[in-house]
Amino acid sequence: MAHKKEDVKAGMYGDAVREKLEEFAESGWESIPEDEREEWFTRFKFWGVFHQRDGQESYFMMRLNNCGGVLEPEQLRAIAEVADEYARGPAENPRWGNGWIDYTTRQSIQLHWLKLEDIPAIWEKLEAVGVSSRSAGGDTMRNISGCAVAGKDADEYVPTRGLLDEIEDGIRGDDDLANLPRKFNISVTGCKQGCAQDSINDVALEPAHRPVDGEHVRGFNVRVGGGLGGREPRKARSLDLFVTPEHAYETVREFVELYCEEGNRQNRNKNRARFFVDDWGTEKIRETLDERLDFDLMHAGTDFRDEYTYNAGKSDDEGDHDHVGVHDQTEELSYVGVSVPVGRMPAADALKLADLADEYGSGEVRLSRRQNPLVMDVPDERVDDFLEEPLLETYSPNPSVFTRGGMACTGTEFCSIALAETKTRMAETLGWLQRNVDVPDDVTQLKIHCSGCTADCGQAMSADIGLQGMRARKDGEMVEAMDVGVGGSIGQEPTFIDWVHQRVPADEVPGLLANIIETYAEMRNEGQTFREWVAATGHETIAELAEPEETDYVDPCLTDAKQAWYPFADGDGPAPTDAEGTPLGVESDD
């Protein structure tokens, strides 16, 4: 028997949802029948519109879609203007105030505190500059990830920008493929650094080469079934299949169609593509694709996984581990990646960044999978002037090791399934570590990722140090807590964290992190990266040597434990709004 959500989607899904959403927006929150709200919220997600959570009724998050992280000139400005005008809620975040954007781990942007009544106006403003929220959520293909500088990097081994656009238009744009068993992630990597992180995607193309008819051909090896969530991570597995660039699109499409037709629609805990690959096996999938594709399949070519350096736990000498800093783009141009603490930027700062992108570059901004924006096409002779801009004091191209390596998902601030607050807590924790923990001068990277729950949107499983939200009792009171693990990386052979301590009260986590990092600094061999040290030491030994500890760190919402309507506000949640956006029970000023 199909899961009940399959019945909901069968009633309406995909492009058809938009018209109904616009009707509800025109009539107001109360026009959504109360007993049908969860069904409509399921459908809204296809258009990137998520109801935030209980207690925040009538407020929504919108996730945007920008394939491969590309923001063309004027797009960041339009998004920032929308955030400034519409993304303002009834309570301020104590660190970021009101009106800001969140950069995501899939090279996109999220907006919060949006009223249902404002969604059509927001769409109108964003779509006028080519920004869409279609297929940004729900059981469909999510934002396609690619090398953040695809088409701009002179060292790109296989050109992928055109392929990314083809997949975006022809596969994600096909409403017949809108209703998948579960969300689905596509990755296309054309560089040798592995920055699209093919290992943790449902279908992934990685650069490779092999002889074909006596000629040396560049193309892609195909992997399937990667993912992180549910404490059941999988690395994408090889199909022993090499495809040329001209056959890449149809190969991806056939696997998407196969999963759409044959994927599990009964058990939502076991219906991601990684479980489909578990069940079918790579040999059967390859044989099935051979029957469905109209070209002869070739065995996998020689890949570059041993050269992957992006979040791979290798030293800087071996290559870039992120896109932060000044990087050569061509002989005359550079791009500059700035570090945004835990991916959150106030709208006013995003507007300033858009201005700087216009002034110093082409106006184009790219987004990386580490929640950071890149200003593109900066003439080399103007780089130094750009680096002197005051905004870059806050969003530095040369940040501290802690700020640079930190990532966080949405958490209980807005997410309905999270168990712990993440963004503000991580920002405070990283600042505390920077003030209190010294690291050797040659330690320039330390990836600390935080997820509010086991869905792992913050990619904790792939971090040097991963945190996942939990709850625990402390002094007889329920508090927010974290499970803490070490040793993840995405490289030639991806590894996932092993847990060293679980259900650590949130106010003891910074002390635990300090103890882990200081133990690493004391015990490491010269030049040894954190990932190398973990592999050499073992997580059981690390657990013995580094214990949770109370410090002078003050947690922003230790005792919330998801009981409040908003972790940083007292009192009742906001009232739902009428068709004009006025809270019900409150008289309008008109």
From TrEMBL:
Domain Nitrite/sulphite reductase 4Fe-4S, residue spans: 138-294, 404-548
Record PROSITE patterns: NIR_SIR
Region (Disordered): 566-590
Coiled-coil annotated residue ranges, if any: none
Keywords linked to the UniProt accession: 4Fe-4S, Heme, Iron, Iron-sulfur, Metal-binding, Oxidoreductase
Signal peptide, first to last residue: none
GO molecular function list: 4 iron, 4 sulfur cluster binding; heme binding; metal ion binding; oxidoreductase activity
SUPFAM superfamilies tied to this protein: Nitrite and sulphite reductase 4Fe-4S domain-like (SSF56014), Nitrite/Sulfite reductase N-terminal domain-like (SSF55124)
Pfam families: NIR_SIR, NIR_SIR_ferr
Nitrite/Sulfite reductase ferredoxin-like domain mapped to chain residues: 56-90, 95-129, 329-390
Family: Belongs to the nitrite and sulfite reductase 4Fe-4S domain family.
Protein name (record): Ferredoxin--nitrite reductase
Gene source species: Halarchaeum salinum
Organism placement in taxonomy: Archaea, Methanobacteriati, Methanobacteriota, Stenosarchaea group, Halobacteria
